[in-house]
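Narrative summary of target 7.
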Amino acid sequence: FPLTYQGAVIGQLLVAWRAPDEAFTATEERLLRDIARQAGTAVHALQLTADLQRARQEIVARREEERRRLRRDLHDGLGPSLAAVLLKLGSARALLAGSPEKADGLLAEVEADIEGTVTEVRRIVYDLRPPALDQLGLAGALRAFAAACERGEVGDSGLRLTVEVEMPGELPPLPAAVEVAAYHITREALTNVVRHARAEHCTLALTIEGGKQTHLRLSILDDGQGLAGTAPAGTDVPTGIGVTAMQERAAELGGACTIDSAPGKGTRVTAVLPLGT
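Modeled conformation, tokenized:
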């Protein structure tokens, strides 16, 4: 007997006759169907609980991975750089009275070291949240990156690419996590077009769609050569060019990112990111 929840079959209730020659009566079958119908709700709740627990575990794991990455960047990168600056400043002070030229040389090294440290700090901050999102908003940041692709500032394919951008003039306020995911997915997809697709035209479309749950839909479609060895839509797509990263960013928010491509027929990247009810 099927276990159903809101019209969807989520399992089965398996029963057996008391004896090989003793079939169920009509009353017993009705009772079993009622039990299966009520059990469907309980089984669905149990599945939701298990899914929630797995989601919590994934969130904790990803958070700890991010903390580990930040700790490594700070401890192995900024830490030694700042320690070296401190030592050079101490040496420069000691040389200032007796050997001003040597002190000046050390101070010049300190200046170069500090410039490198500032660059590293900017990189760490950029990884946390791209500054373009705060400066231009999501729509402006995506338009700016699309323009950079057209100008040949992204990748080095040697081909002229036209990027057509289709999106509302103004977007409603979006969750920060959705903005970051949409931005990185688009950057990755457009970068792949520039570097690998050998395309002449690409369309970037962004829409806010309603229904039972409002979501943001991204679509990046190119007229390039397609992904080598790509299977039909709905099957596995070769990874290694950022596909996994795009899919993981969408999945983290409860969304999905799909790649449809065929040799010689271009590639379409579609990401759907929930915005809440």
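The longest helix spans residues 26-96.
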